[in-house]
Amino acid sequence: MKLIIEDPTPEFHEQLLSLLADHAAYVEIQTDATWTPDRASLYWNSLPPRAQRILREAVLHNGFVSADLLREDGKSLRGHSGPLNSALERGFRKGWWPDGMRSPIQPQGPGFGQVVGYRIPDDLIEVFEEAIVDTTHQSALAEVIDSEGGTWDPARAIQALRREGHIVDAKRARAVLRRIAATGLIVKTDGTAAIYRRTNEQ
């Protein structure tokens, strides 16, 4: 029998491991430690601005960002890795991903606290780029919706994002509207079509 449990809470994960310990000889435990778009978005949104900048610049620079590009006023980058690691640990505690999830970005340097840059593995660049872009689009469109109100569909979302300097297609616009609806700002008015209105409007 194969049992697959996706994104268990830390408490459930610990209890399950304890239960299965008595049958370890017959049990093979596999955890999904893949960075999915949803997990990447959760990680990105949980980072403070400075840590977001490190991750964003690494993605934009094909996986590596130098310390010189990140350094402000000649200051050391010592301590900048803390929020990146804290977000990973916080995600485990919240049940967003399993224990042992690899960090998506690592400081690079000769050691002794000296950092020459940060690197994100090649296989994670695309998924984190998508997460960053999605969050940027969501924030921009949510601000316009909150300001203008009214009825929203993918066509209007595309126009609004274009005015804000973002070019998206209909598929992306629908995805952004769904994410905004999940925050409670808008509600769907049609059971089949992607048409929404601001929640506090009749």
Automatic annotation (TrEMBL):
It comes from the Bacteria. Keywords: Plasmid. This is Uncharacterized protein.
